[in-house]
Amino acid sequence: MRERKFAGTPVGAVGLGCMGMSWAYTESERDDDASVALLREALDLGVTFLDTAQVYGAGHNETLVGRALAGRRDEAVLATKTGLVVEDPGTRRLVRQATPEHVASSAEDSLRRLGTDVIDLYYLHRVDPEVPLADTWGAMAELVAAGKARHLGLSEVTVAQAAEAHAIHPVAAVQSELSLWTRDALGAPGGSAGAASDGHGGAAEAGDVVGWCAANGAAFVPFSPLGRGFLTGTVTGADFEDTDFRATNPRFQEEALKANLRIVDAVRAVAARHGATPAQVAIAWTLAQGAHVIPIPGTKKVRYLRDNAGAADLDLTAADLAGLDALPAAVGGRY
Fold it and tell me: Rounded mean pLDDT of the chain?
């Protein structure tokens, strides 16, 4: 696989988001043994930039990733996150918790679950409006000084928030949703319907976060580059399990989903010209947004892992990119 650089370290150009192995999508298909095998195959394929968080399955996902990396820890650049906790397991209501005390204690919990002495990239999952960002970021910087984290990142922040943190301690990465149907991080007006909502109680116009990262030596890490599976062309109806996040997501409701299929049709057309899959085109589009961009599509299935990894070798033409850039905004909010 082609490589990109994260903080000077070569990583596979396409990473792996691990959340769906533990919760949020089609939970009846959860299989820990299969996920461990998939994670190890990812390393074999050169997919070395791995992403998890303490909140994914209330710690389950970190434990799963730690199990998979046993004996192979040095092959991966491992990212996890703090700052979101499950308030109500029944409804999966999430709340922000980013006090310095929580940052310190959750880092210890993550290190234990991951079975490692150091986290390569420690993200603030969401800015807590009740805690000054400087206080949270300062506590995270203390983890770097203590050798418990190598680099720090932010998730779903505005350019102003990234700049504020960067003035205190370098921001090595910003992770935000970016795909052919969610373009808010590019700073384009009207990037997607419902763009201002971050899905966890806050709202802000992000600005050109991708450009800010390029200008400040940070990686930009798109999550959901496949539009929560929609851009693969395999989601044609709104029939989801009750526990599946998409069952209540506005973009996956029947009328919105039908309207959004025009986006998939355009992606399919590009894929046909290249002998590629729609998933590979969608991921390749994110890669084309800059050499500092490292997308992290998620999957529980090896065949999709291999498919996603192949996107690193797909070169879209200028005409392809112009056509994809001109696609209409998605119908329905992100959350």
Answer: 92
Domain around 186: 3-226+285-314
* SS3 of residue 312 by DSSP: helix
pLDDT at residue 195 greater than cutoff 70: no
Active-site residue 56, yes or no? yes
Sequence-separated (6 or more) residues with CB below 8 Å from residue 104: 139, 142, 143
Region of 213 on the Ramachandran plot (φ > 0 left; ψ -120 to 50 alpha; else beta): alpha
Q: What is the CATH number of the domain that holds 186?
A: 3.20.20.100
Q: Would you say residue 118 has pLDDT above 70? A: yes
Indicate whether 17 belongs to any domain.
Answer: yes
Q: Residue 82 and residue 260: Cα distance in Å, rounded?
A: 33
Instruction: Answer whether 0.85 is exceeded by the pTM.
Output: yes
Query: Catalytic one among 56, 122, 123, 304?
Result: 56
| Domain-embedded: residue 66 | yes
- Whether residue 149 lies inside any domain: the answer is yes
| pLDDT at residue number 204 | 55
Residues 6+ apart with CB under 8 A from 258: none
Indicate the number of domains in the chain: 1
Token pair, residue 259, equals 């309207």
Q: Long-range contacts for 237-245 (Cβ within 8 Å, ≥24 apart)?
A: 240/26, 241/26, 241/27, 241/28, 243/23, 243/27, 244/24, 244/25, 244/26, 244/27, 245/24, 245/25
Of the candidates 283, 275, 288, 280, the one whose C-alpha atom is nearest the C-alpha of residue 318 is 288
Is 327 within the bounds of a domain?
A: no
* Contact in structure between 69 and 115 (CB atoms under 8 Å): yes
